[in-house]
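pasting for ref. prot 1 ->
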Amino acid sequence: MQIKKEDVVRELKKCTDPEIGINLVDLGLIYNIEIDDKNNVTVTMTMTSPMCPVTSIILADVQLRLEKIEGVGQIKINLVWDPMWSPDMISQEAKLNMQGGS
């Protein structure tokens, strides 16, 4: 069975930045998801800052969550700094939640 991008996104939405409390997808940290015909998954992502003190925790959480996808092959996480993350990358829904709106 071929894994779908939606399967990966669903698991990544369970990963939250412990300092901000927003999931990685809505935070805008996930730049790209690739799935090959052998269900190997490559995630290209960033952190809010190159000095992020919880980088290793977040990367480990991403790895563990993706390993839970049935039929997943190898997992590769590319941590990049270009483009640099900015608050403009936060989803509109997450921005509303941060402001206490709905």
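and prot 2 ->
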Amino acid sequence: MGTTPVLELHDVQKSFGAVVALRAGTISVNGGSIHALVGENGAGKSTLVKIVAGLYQRDGGTFRFQGEDVDFTSTAQSKAAGVAVIYQEPTLFPDLSVTENIFMGRQPVNRFGRIDRKAMRREVERLFTRLDVVIDPDRPAEGLSIADQQVIEIAKAVSLDASLLIMDEPTAALSGKEVDRLFAIARSLRDEGRALIFISHRFDEVFSLCDTVTVMRDGAYVGTSAIADTEPDELVRQMVGRTITELFPKQPARIGEALLEVDGLSRAGVFHDIGFTVRSGEIVGLSGLVGAGRSEVVRAVFGVDPYDEGMVRVSGKNVPAGDPAAAMRAGIALVPEDRRKQGLVTESSVAHNITLAIRRRLARFGIITAAMENRAAKEWASRLEVKTHALDTVAATLSGGNQQKVVLAKWLATGPRVLIIDEPTRGIDVGTKSEVHRLLSQLAGQGMAVLMISSELPEVLGMADRILVMREGRITADIPREQATSENVMYAATHATEQQK
């Protein structure tokens, strides 16, 4: 491991008007190491990364890179110095080939002044061999998986000889095998002597991959530890300033009548003969591996996607297929997996987002005033403890956890009887996870039927009264809470079994 830090930040500050985003950002990252950066949403991690990437300039503090005082005034300057940022969702040019994306803006030319495509392709093949990945250099970027797009961004960084790679929540949308491949690449880059910063809310990944961890809270540095010298409970205490004794605060609720009934739901090539019931007061977990068809099923139940056969009923009444408005009138609410793209109008205010689904109810003679909007939004923002200095704050500026609360507030404002929530805590911090879990438990206690889709097995085991397991578009198990274990859920997710009764 290198003795001179590649990156040093000490007491870095950044404010946006009256809002202090970073009070004392401090981190020191050595070459030949993978350094985790953890903290709740809003802790200042993203602001710190954007300063290193040249998107923001610091207001104060010390910023050193490769032993020299610096201030990157653009992303181009940061990249030229040797910094590469790999985001959760890379932005490639979809119509260009993989090779063209890697060499965009710096294509080699031959002696006639023309782009040397053969040289570009040879270099890409060499990079992919070095990273031990198989991707066709000539295929268009459009249609590539998120995992392959990230590999292309990494290959670009390696080709630029980046000395610091920052991976910002890179595994949120990846399957287990894709995560394993990404980690193998990260370890190989560390072994070459590069410095890596890994930002994640998943402690199992932090402890599996990283050498060192730095914790931030409320825009300030809390501490740095060797991974071998700390444990998850200690990181949680440092992150939230308190001890969370119960991450899954599941309260017993009285299970009542069937509210949501799905019978024989099928869509060719996607899912087949899906049948289940969710009762009043019940949290039903829908589990399975990525690609099992879970999100497709709930989108069909809500009417966003079509289905070929089957029936959806709420309180015994049929819900028309392919009609989300009818599903809403029946009392169904759907919090989608991708809150930014499907759940929010990110450039609109918090108040506007919370009232989106009830605007017809709010209107008087076809008119909605800002006062009406703010009154309705204030109640739900308060109930869900949305952390924002004003209801006219643009939703895009909120932390991931608070964005999730806004989406939840929007749907709870409709007064649903059935809440379908897809990946309720993806990409949000441990403290906010506990708050979301407590809210789901409270809603079930008030008689709501909750269908929760989650890829996090501890979340499913901790919160669900029953677990439905899907594999390749079919339900393979229906497991009561008292019988549910990691082993039998994973067995049902990976083996073709008869549905358990």
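DSSP finds 18 helices and 20 strands in the chain.
The mean pLDDT is 88.
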